[in-house]
Design a protein that fits this description.
single chain; two-stranded antiparallel ribbon; 13 helices; 6 strands
Length: about 450
């Protein structure tokens, strides 16, 4: 039968032996756990650390628990030894001996001191001078206290193993980034990335100090004893600092790229602006030509050279001469974009200004194409076509040219050619081959 309480039936010899074996195994397990806890690296670190916050409060309780555990374990050892000695007196114990063994193994025969009332309150028990427990109650209490103390030790050890080394590595990367930033002029108060580096430096220092003094505050998830593997060190603050440093590092690399490519990029901007100037000059000349050669045409005005861009280009060259790379970087990017936009605007202006000349050229080409078509069909000497061709040519080659009137003249020539090439209604109608009926043609 199961282990009975002090008021239950007397255990048999076999039941006594089974109870002693079970309690002996539990004794070995508790002893191994306490020795492992005593030698745990996390416990040694906690004993020598200047703790604050939640870790300070929980370790103060855990230390008392560990001391109390050894006291309880000694009492457990004494009670188990006494029961073993009584059982070892004879192979077949008497009924009185079995009753005494039953009382030792199942009764509240272990008397323990209550200890300091303040410490007892911190441990969550009522203040008393002493208390009596059964061996099973003693084991259960030790198991609970052990888990509570082990949680603090394991959490502190896990956090200290995970975070300080990573923080130190990130701090080393931060120092390299700061040195690189200073080499390109990125400093606090002069560039946002310099201010970010200062913020990250302060955050890493504060984070490391907090991790070293209060590791329990950097644990997330379940406690190690209640759910093995369920919790982990909280790295959120570290991860944010690492991401912020990575953002700054990329910005510094962009500034370094500017330092390496600055001259080439400045030359390209100068070339683009030069082409824009030449295009604008061509547009201005074309506008004068259009105004003199095309009548009644609205020609858009042409702007002057982009003086503001040239001023920014001079400022960029000055930044390069003085190695102010952090200032050159954003300025150069904007210059490249605006220079490309200026060249596109100049080309659009030239296209808009020369549009009337393009229209005139297109009309001249159409007129010549129609005349060549007339010649292929043997109508080169047709008087009506010749008259209309001459009228259209005079309008297209006169200065200033009226594009509206010239287009109408070309259309009249086109229509006349179409009529000349189309057969008369009802066949030849008495006209000879190649003879065109001009009756009614004005």
């Amino acid at each position: 039968m199961a282990v009975a309480g002090p008021t239950g039936p007397v255990l048999s010899r076999e039941e006594v032996d089974r109870a002693l074996a079970r309690l002996g195994a539990e004794h070995e397990a508790v002893e191994s756990s306490l020795l492992a806890l005593q030698d745990h690296a996390g416990r040694r670190l906690l004993e020598g650390a200047a703790l604050t916050g939640e870790t300070h409060d929980r370790w103060a309780v855990a230390e008392q628990l560990i001391n109390r555990l050894w006291t309880y374990f000694d009492a457990y050892t004494d009670a188990l030894t006494a029961a073993r000695e009584l059982r070892a007196r004879r192979r077949w114990p008497t009924q009185a001996e079995l009753g005494e063994l039953t009382d030792l193994l199942t009764g509240a025969r272990v008397t323990l001191p209550g200890g300091d009332p303040a410490a007892t309150a911190a441990l969550g028990t009522a203040a008393r001078l002493s208390e009596q427990l059964t061996l099973q109650e003693l084991v259960d209490r030790m198991n609970g206290w052990y888990a509570q103390a082990l949680d603090v030790v394991v959490i502190a050890d896990a956090v200290w193993s995970a975070l300080p080394a990573r923080i130190d590595l990130l701090a080393a990367e931060l120092r390299r980034t700061r040195s690189l930033a200073h080499s390109v002029g990125v400093r606090p108060g002069e560039h946002p990335a310099g201010d970010d580096l200062e913020d990250i430096t302060r955050e890493l220092a504060a984070l490391r100090a907090a991790v070293v003094t209060d590791p329990v505050a950097f644990w997330t998830g379940a406690s190690p004893s209640s759910a093995p593997g369920g919790g982990r060190p909280d790295t959120d603050r570290y991860d944010r600092a690492a991401r912020a440093l990575e953002d700054v590092r990329r910005e510094i690399e962009a500034v370094l790229t500017v330092r390496q490519d600055a001259e080439q990029r400045l030359m390209r901007v100068r070339d683009v602006l030069s082409r824009a100037d030449r295009t604008l000059a061509e547009a201005r000349q074309a506008r004068v030509e259009v105004l003199s050669k095309i009548a009644a045409s609205e020609v858009p005005a042409v702007s002057g050279p982009p003086t503001a861009l040239y001023e920014q280009l001079s400022a960029a060259a000055e930044h390069r001469r003085r190695a102010r790379w952090h200032r050159l970087s954003p300025l150069l990017e904007g210059l490249e974009q605006r220079a490309d936009e200026e060249l596109a605007r100049a080309r659009e202006s030239l296209t808009a200004v020369t549009a009337p000349l393009a229209v005139r050229a297109e009309l001249r080409g159409r007129l010549d194409a129609y005349r060549a078509k007339a010649a292929r069909h043997g109508l080169a000497e047709d008087p009506v076509l010749g008259e209309r061709y001459d009228a259209a040519r005079r309008k297209l080659w006169s200065a200033p040219c009226d594009l509206v009137a010239a287009e109408q003249a070309v259309l009249r020539y086109q229509h006349a050619l179409a009529e000349a090439l189309s057969p008369p209604a009802g066949g030849t109608g008495g006209f000879g081959p190649g003879v065109i009926d001009r009756r009614g043609d004005s």
